[in-house]
Amino acid sequence: MTSAPDPAADVYEGRDGWLFLIRGNNRVLEQYGRPGVSRRTLWRWRRIIETRMRRCARLGATYFHALAPEKLTVYPEWAEGLAFNSARAPALRLARWLTASPGARAWVDLTGAFRAAKDGPPLYLRTDTHWTHQGCVLAYRTILARMGVPPRDDIEARRERIALPFTGDLGLKFMPHRSESAEGSAIASEARRIHANGLLLEMEALGRGGDAHLGAHAVFRNDDPGADPRRLVIFGDSYAQHTPHSPVATLTALFADTFREVHFLWSTGIDWHYLDAVRPDFVLGEMAERFVIDLPPHGIRIERLAELARERKLMGEFTAADSRSPAPPPPDAPASVPEAADAAPR
């Protein structure tokens, strides 16, 4: 009988209990080695970003592309004893491949911004792959600077600063779980959700809205007179998210507080039919750095993706007595998509 794999083997414990994702289906640590992310994959990402820019321009929108850097990329010195080459971080290599490409105009250098600020307050949670409030605000300001949009400067004054016990996606891999104290990032805002698709509503009805991942779709409206009157569409993942009330800091809440209208679609691919109908001013493609290893699908439709995700989650994961093999992941699923609601990282 084969023993079950140890989930904690995907995680490396560095200095002062800081946890780093190193394996998983995305083979994170291998991406920093040789060959790492293949040259063919990087070349295709270059072409994808160029194509997205051109197609968005034809719709009257400006496209931007941002990778949420891995902890290993920003804090390699905190992963004491782990042998890897942070200079070969996928985000750095993709940025080099965009040199002299029209796609360079769409690139948002979050890695450079995070490395420049890493000696200040921590930008990531100790037990999680995601950002602290400070890290999220830094990403928000960096993206807006590329867009030429001024940030809201009163965010801190409207923020709820309540520190709560928190167990991150990496901490959940240990038994007992590893926890930390995390300061809340919710802000008082005029932004309100005006649309959620069926997948998200069904998950929320089950009390598991936070587990709605691929295929989730939400729209936010902000009638604050100080909001930027333009419309932003985000194709993103858990660093952006579909809720302003997540225990981890997410970009969507900050953007919804800034723009008149924000649409969030959880997908690495672009739904061009949706963009043609919405006609946004800005389109942001956001994804975790480790997902660079997977190319996005062509011709995705957000509702079809939601249907596939609903079949997987509502017909499989929520049937506790069902011991059958799980349904295959949606075609847009990154390699590290969780197999269960409490699996991690996302």
Description:
It is a single chain. The protein has 346 residues and is α/β, with parallel strands linked by helices. It has one domain (9-317). 27% of the residues lie in helices and 16% in strands. It is built from 9 helices and 11 strands. The strands form 3 sheets. It has a 7-stranded mixed β-sheet with strand order 4-3-11-9-10-8-7. A two-stranded antiparallel ribbon has the order 1-2. Strands 5-6 form a two-stranded antiparallel ribbon. The chain is globular, with a radius of gyration of 19 Å. The chain starts with 10 loop residues before the first strand and ends in a 29-residue tail after the last helix.
Keywords:
346 residues, alpha/beta, seven-stranded mixed beta sheet, two-stranded antiparallel sheet, 9 helices, 27% helix, disordered C terminus
Number of domains: 1
Please tell me how large the radius of gyration is: 19 Å
Morphology:
globular
Mean pLDDT: 88
Cα end-to-end separation: 29 Å
The tally of strands reads 11
Order of H and E elements:
EEHEHHEHHEEEHEEHEHEH
Could you describe the largest sheet, including whether it forms a barrel?
Answer: 7 strands, mixed
Order of strands across the widest beta sheet? Answer: 4-3-11-9-10-8-7
Beta-strand content bin:
15-25%
Name the structural class.
alpha/beta
- Total helices: the number is 9
Share of residues in helices: 25-40%
State the low-pLDDT regions, or none.
318-346
Domain AlgX/AlgJ SGNH hydrolase-like: 11-147
Main location: periplasm
Pathway: Glycan biosynthesis; alginate biosynthesis
Region (Disordered): 317-346
